[in-house]
## 1
Amino acid sequence: MTLNPKATLMDAQDLTRALTRIAHEIIERNKGTDGLALVGIHTRGVPIAERLAELIERFEGTRPLTGKLDITLYRDDLTEIALQPIVRKTEVPFDVSGMRIVLCDDVLYTGRTARAALDALVDMGRPGVIQYAVLVDRGHRELPIRADYVGKNVPTSRSEVIKVRLEETDGADGVELLELVDA
């Protein structure tokens, strides 16, 4: 199986506009930054959370707390991923209890990553509210999970793949739609 490029869904400017809109929506829904924290899900959710925090700080004058969450050991498909999965460091340097937490990720697909993130976060304490922000929602949910903030909704087939590239992890910003084809 190979991945063939099908379409560019977002360029760097589109991505920045989507994150700017999401930052404004987060501020509006949460009535500012008091008690607000953004927690990025490794890998690409981490820079998304950082960018959103920077934007919120620019608009409100106060930077929300940020954290990094590794959900590897909370996944229900751990045995399917790898014999020795890569476990990254969770860094949530604040008490989540009573906080308004926005989990941040790049793509919402089946909902299983979000479920694992919820489990990992609740193991740290009892947040007052947990919200979910994603850059792309591609559909095909297997669990009753939805995002509160979405950069772009992209209906896809199961033979398609969404590839998010971020400057911090990939050297450039953009979102591509790829097609999985037999080689």
Note: DSSP finds five helices and eight strands in the chain.
## 2
Amino acid sequence: MAARAIGTSTIAFGLVSLPVKIYSTSESSRKVSFNMIWKERGVRVRQQYIDPADGAVVPRDEIVKGYEFAKDQYVLFTPEELEVVEAPKSDEIEIVSFVPADTVGRLYFNKAYYLGPDKGGARAYRLLGAALRETDRVAIAKHATRGKQYIVMIRPHDEGLLMEQLYYADEIRPFGEVPLEDGEVNEAELQLAKQLIDQAASDAFDPARFKDEVREKTLELIEAKIAGQEITAAPAEESKTKIIDLMAALKASIEEDEKERKPASRAGKKSKSADKPKKKSTRKKAASG
């Protein structure tokens, strides 16, 4: 089934205008969401805004946005005042520069969207993708939508284009704020750590190896509830013995990994030996009598 666009825009680079459609990269329907239900009556409840002073319900049309500039002190804004500072409703993706692909740190990646050509934009769409591939560069652009302005990166993906929404520089915390303790790297421990990495190494990341186990268990629980089954909590697994010594922990990890690999290797050897044809005996039977 063809994907449904969640929006449209126009990429502007130079004097070229490229109409595009924007698609979500994830399946929102895969998420399991719950509603808030009144247990006594089994009906869905609604959220309301309450005056903390007397508990009175505040009508939604009497609520405005405010900014807290001091403790319990707010400056209020009307919708008309906020419209003044909103980004223009152009929905345009304006390319500002083209930079080497490897110069954009992964720390800045926020959300990703697929881009597809809109009507009349197929040639320019292919051209931009080919030019980015040939130069090994990505496009950095400003994207104004829904009253907000974002910085985005456009890069080739498969046969098309991907748009990644980036964080602004002041939205990223410096790593220097993370407290670190002093510690030396022991050479023997380093060799064991490298051995452990080699044993668990793969040639590439395979996302298909991983499943959302919590989601699957939740869906099973929902189906069981629908079927009228009684739900009981499973006993909690006993925690494994904690190994405080780093060297001992590394050795134990390597031994555990080797144990898991041995049954598989034995099974492989057994199957190979089973496939070999048995040799016929060349010894003559002794004559009877």
Note: Residues 279-289 have pLDDT under 50 and may be disordered.
